[in-house]
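WARN retry 2 of 3 for item q-0093 after timeout on previous attempt; input resubmitted unchanged.
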Amino acid sequence: MQIDYRKIIKVVLSFHVIVPIVIGTVIGSVIAARGNLPSVDLLENYKPSTITRVYDVNNEVVAEFYHQRRTVVPLSSMPDHLIKAVLAVEDTDFYKHRGLDFSGIARAMWRNIMAGRIKEGGSTITQQLSKLLFLTPERSFMRKLKEAILALRIERRYTKDEILALYLNQVYLGGGAYGVESASRRYFGKGVSDINLSEASLLAGLLRAPSAYSPLKHPERAKRRRSLVLRRMVVEKFITREKAQQVNSELLNVVVGGGERINRAPYFVEYIRR
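OK item q-0093 returned
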């Protein structure tokens, strides 16, 4: 067997040419991305769009004004089973990583390869927050690079609980509801602090694709998504298998028609708005 040294030399030379080009491209992209990013210090004075309510003399709501239907609540008002459901399905290592989860990225890539399609992403909650607050939803290498850089900066500046609270108050959950408090009232007719495990796992399931898993439009799909969240919670040892089976047998119990804009005195309210 003859060894073709010319081919070996070509491969070696190609390797020495291509690798520096790739490294140089990556470094150049990082430098370009860093130079055009907003400061994460803006979050210090961050005030998300919320609901303005008009009350009558009996303290009853007669009207609501909003661009985004959102009521901000602290993390302490969110039940533990909601937080665990979110972590189980979105970012199991949230309290361990520093903004980027390389094991999660590798795991997502492997599952996507095995599925033959894009089945899941490897973005952490911090990356998702950076995209929600600072970036456009475009799918590009530069946007992902900016997202990663911002995530690292956010992690250096804020605590994990602060990041999680920002994310759960900012994210869109379908039905015109932004944040878990508004979504809870939209789908279940009660505040987020009062939701049970079934309702919490349903909300957590909406994070990935609120329209696709809407319990109002696609109840069966929503139930399957809830089941997936519960299985992930079992895997992470947040709940027992028996508890998951029990919750899986429960109805969705969503409030049909909830969450409409209140306006009981339109002429008077318009006068106030002006």
